[in-house]
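Dear Dr. K.,

Following up on our conversation at the group meeting, I've run the structure prediction for 3-oxoacyl-[acyl-carrier-protein] reductase MabA from Rhodococcus rhodochrous. I'm pasting the input sequence below exactly as I used it, so you can double-check it against your construct before we proceed with anything downstream. Let me know if the numbering doesn't match what you have in your notebook.
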Amino acid sequence: MSQERIAIVTGAARGIGAATAIQMAKDGHLVAALDLKAQDCAGTVDAITASGGRALAVGADVSDEGSVALAVDTVVSRLGEPTILVNNAGITRDNLLFKMTSDDWDAVLGVHLRGAFLMSRSVQGFMRSAGFGRIVNLSSTSALGNRGQANYSAAKAGMQGITKTLAIELGKFGVTVNAIAPGFIQTDMTAATAQRIGVSFEDFITDAAAQIPVARVGQPEDVANLMSFLVSENAGFVSGQVIYVAGGPTD
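The predicted structure tokens came back this morning:
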């Protein structure tokens, strides 16, 4: 088993974040599950503790500098100094450009990009001191462009840019930084997309699967499994990469 480390997973209440937090615990790490409200992570923490792991639910607005500082201080005092960070927190405020508000733009960029910046800046010192660190940022196939998602696409493309830059800056300290870009993953977020465009989630999944070479949509665990490798000691020479988890090639 790999060395026990302290892992922070943002957006850990459900979907990819919850699956990732649970996988981190299976890998032997202590997990801080962050979401806007600590109580929203109760299910994730319960799943971890029921399997013999240790986890802490922490409430934090990752787009707020003070909230991030307080959350990281809480993790350090109650679990220890984090050397694994998964920047998964994200929201959608979909609309066509002419109907998209400035608030919708700012909210999405704030949670995804500002959140990844603030969280990464807050923990990098612990990683540098330890001579080991793993940061994984969640991008998306939407980074390649997706109708009705100018804000989300820009944020997810930005996640790739910050990934490559931090990989350059932090590599000499034993810190790797990578991005995972999922395609269609069956989560509450994709269910909300189906509702927005006015189709049933079942039909949405069926139609999506028909376009995917492996003939199925992804599950949160598909992303968590890759996450498990990227944060491990075995991935020490993999950095600055954007890995698409989409069931086939991407453009």
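Two things stood out to me. The chain has two domains: 6-183+220-244, 188-217. The mean pLDDT is 96.

Best regards,
J.T.
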